């Protein structure tokens, strides 16, 4: 009986001393939601039937656990026609790819250029829905179509910026010599 009382007392002391500890810090238990991978000097090509359809270049890419990607130092996308001809370029100061929706979002100084139709677009935000094959924005946008300049709030276009609809147009005018959509980044390579 003394041994069982002694054993019970020993187990009781061990249980009491081991359960008297500080609570765990709740911030240490938070799930990490930052980037899982970082890649520098990214260059991605997508092709169809051995013809390049689009070409993406960026100095830095961050990839997250949910498949989303961020291009914090800028991104340039080139879109090609079915015959392989370069038709459209998209540049942005920052870019995001929302994986589940298959939507690319550019922000900052976003510029789109249709080389075939001599059309240019400038906005602070632009979305490219790859499933619907459209680009759109609800922000202020400036479009240069040949020698005419249009401004408005919002735009929807096909992904090559060949056909577009300007929402809530504000004004339009014929360009004076030397005027046009700012192409200060046109020939400037993305920083590495």
Automatic annotation (TrEMBL):
Renumbered residue ranges of the record's region Disordered: 172-192
InterPro entries assigned to the protein according to its UniProt record, in alphabetical order: LipoPS_assembly_LptC-rel (IPR010664), LptC (IPR026265)
UniProt name for this protein: LPS export ABC transporter protein LptC
One of the Pfam families matching this protein, by short name: LptC
GO molecular function: lipopolysaccharide transmembrane transporter activity
NCBIfam families: LptC_YrbK
GO CC, alphabetical: plasma membrane
